[in-house]
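Work Package 3 (structural annotation) set out to generate three-dimensional models for the target panel prioritized at the project kickoff. During this period the team completed the workflow that converts sequence records into discrete structure tokens, so that structures can be stored uniformly alongside our sequence database. As a representative example, we reproduce one entry of 204 residues exactly as it appears in the project archive.
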Amino acid sequence: MQGSNRQAADNIAGLYERHAKLWDTSRGKTLFERSWLDRFAALIPQRGAILDIGCGSGEPLARHFIESGYALTGIDSSTSLIDICRTRFPNSDWQVADMRSLSLGRSFDGLIAWDSFFHLTFEDQRRMFPLFRAHSKPGTALMFTSGPAHGEAIGVFVGEPLYHSSLGPDEYRALLAEHGFTVLAHKAEDPACGNHTVWLAQRQ
């Protein structure tokens, strides 16, 4: 990894913390992700437990699951974003945590890492798959977004570099299989979902 990319990757948590309020107001609140959220939720028991990994300010995804009756736990590395979540949804479980060292000591019916997992470096992404397994059980649904191919990309938010990376599709499939997950659906740059690349899997 080039030095500038490493610096941008290391800056992600601080960037979201420094600009939490602006991020919240600029984050779209319309559920263009609805079709994928519905496919994910169809695999989860009524009032089941969902872990939102990199939950941000809790809108619109966490709100959708909470209002649909699921027991939601949200984690994010930004204290300010978690404070927003606690103010909005005081009856849900919100925790400040780095997903790379996630250790909640329990399993969930659904794990979702939407627009969060892809901020990790290649190696950190690979290390997440044992953590997905550790927080799952047979039948647990897992959904995350990635890039369409192996590589790194640097965006910009408030004039600061915003790091993204992705493994290749074959490697994601291999990692999922290695940790007991079967891919149920995958779409690269889905035009019906804001060109997001989405993975939906389930632990066997």
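The two ends are 34 Å apart (CA to CA).
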